[in-house]
Design brief:
Layout: H1 6-22, E1 27-30, H2 35-45, E2 52-57, H3 68-83, E3 88-92, H4 94-110, H5 117-133, E4 140-142, E5 148-151, E6 157-160, H6 178-183, E7 184-185, H7 193-202, H8 224-232, E8 237-241, E9 247-251, E10 272-278, E11 283-288, E12 296-307, E13 316-320, E14 328-334, E15 340-349, E16 356-360, E17 366-373
Parallel strand pairs: 1-2, 1-4, 2-3, 4-7, 8-11
Antiparallel strand pairs: 5-6, 6-17, 8-9, 10-11, 12-15, 12-17, 13-14, 13-16, 14-15, 16-17
Helix pairs in contact: 2-7, 4-5
This protein binds adenosine-5'-triphosphate (ATP).
Length: 375
């Protein structure tokens, strides 16, 4: 007798839930040409569904060499949509990206903060500008993010982490509006990356062997420093050793550096860590050593905390300040001025103002939301 493995049973139950969620709904799939969103289309097609697919176009300002990877993406997306009998349309969000995400990024870096364009791209573009242009015609917007959702007994929808700790992307979704979360579905979020690759290979998807996209979404091959240099240029200033006040070199612009940074500083006699930026005086402060205490923090405040579903009385939580697999345990306290204070159990390296601190429940299951680290 053939019996299903627990994983197979789990996937069957998941299929039933998925079908119930999408049945009779108008679904738009955001298809990037990458393997994850291609498998999203397969998830629908194998259940006999053929949703409309959309490729969002966000090229650089002028036609130049930056553009080649997006042409390839569009070709792949076209081939995948065709394979599964879905329509594919290109939606141009170029202007919105450069107006909104780029403006946010440049404003933050100019003020000495460490922004996260990927986080804002989800809110402003994939679930924002796209919704205004096309998504409003649909009940649900499906993406290939590694994230899940669950609905509680009150009908509230929560963002839930994915079983693949390395790929989990709930942190990138931690600024989306609650109406955007209600519309979002993540059909591959219960899978680990290897399962997606296996499906893609079995299905002979054109992009099965393609490398994962890296760095800032939509910017393709552009290096982050080039992106910033293009808008803000260079602004050289002194680099000073925090402990001694000694000038040890010159930086090309504070915006090329982030607190906690070690690599790419280019001074001899290292290792050096970026500890502080003085934007007014244009000074970069660094510390020397393999693990300087100045590079760590346990307590730090968050401003403009954004709750994904609804406000929660948070106390014992876990959090992330970077896209890493670890969730740090902490307590969190609401301050009188409306900010929230993180008290981390362990000291955290490279806590930089401007970064989003993403907060989860104690078991890092539900993502509550995120706030911007402030000083
Ligand atoms: N240019 C695009 N057009 C349409 N949807 C996009 C585009 N870029 C990203 N997305 C959507 O956002 C999701 C997450 O994007 P991300 O940049 O993290 O890609 P990824 O993890 O490499 O996934 P994929 O393999 O699908 O590209 C994608 O799975 C896709 O649904």
């Amino acid at each position: 007798m053939i019996t299903d493995t627990p994983r197979e049973k789990e996937l069957e139950t998941r299929d039933e839930l998925f079908l119930a969620e999408v049945k009779d709904k108008r679904v738009a799939v955001l298809l990037s040409g990458g393997v994850d969103s291609s498998v999203v289309v397969w998830e629908f097609a194998r259940l006999g569904l053929h949703p409309d697919c959309f490729y969002i176009k966000i090229g650089p300002e002028e036609k130049e060499e930056w553009d080649c990877s997006s042409e390839e993406d569009l070709e792949m997306a076209t081939a995948v949509a065709r394979k599964y009998g879905c329509k594919l349309q290109v939606i141009d969000c170029h202007q919105e990206y450069w107006n909104e995400v780029t403006r946010y990024t440049m404003d933050k870096v100019k003020a000495g903060f460490t922004p996260n364009p990927d986080v804002m791209c989800n809110r402003l573009i994939k679930f924002g500008a796209f919704d205004e242009k096309m998504g409003h015609n649909y009940d649900l917007i499906a993406t290939g993010h590694y994230a899940q959702t669950e609905t509680d007994e009150n009908g509230d929808k929560w963002l839930v982490t994915s079983p693949d700790p390395v790929k989990d992307q709930t942190d990138f979704l931690a600024q989306i509006e609650s109406w955007q979360l209600r519309k979002a579905i993540f059909p591959i979020g219960h899978h680990i990356k290897n399962e997606i690759r296996e499906i893609a290979e079995e299905e002979h998807l054109i992009n099965a062997k393609r490398k994962d996209s890296q760095g800032i979404c939509f910017l393709g091959q552009i290096n982050y420093n080039d992106y910033i240099r293009r808008y803000l240029g260079e602004k050289p200033g002194d680099v000073i050793e925090m402990e001694t006040g000694k000038r040890i070199g010159t930086h090309k612009g504070l915006w090329f550096h982030t607190i906690g940074q070690r690599k790419g500083l280019g001074f001899g006699g290292g290792p050096w860590f970026v500890i502080k930026k003085d934007v007014e005086k244009n000074i970069l402060y660094v510390s020397h050593g393999y693990d300087p205490q100045t590079a760590y923090k346990k307590d730090f405040p968050l401003q403009d905390f954004h709750f994904l579903t609804r406000e929660v009385a948070m106390q014992k939580v876990t959090f992330k300040i970077r896209h890493t697999p670890e969730y740090h345990p902490a307590t969190i306290e609401k301050l009188e001025d409306g900010r929230w204070m993180i008290h981390s159990e362990e000291a955290i390296h490279g806590v930089a103002p401007g970064q989003f601190c993403v907060v989860y429940d104690e078991n890092h299951h539900r993502c509550y939301g995120s706030g911007e680290i402030t000083v």
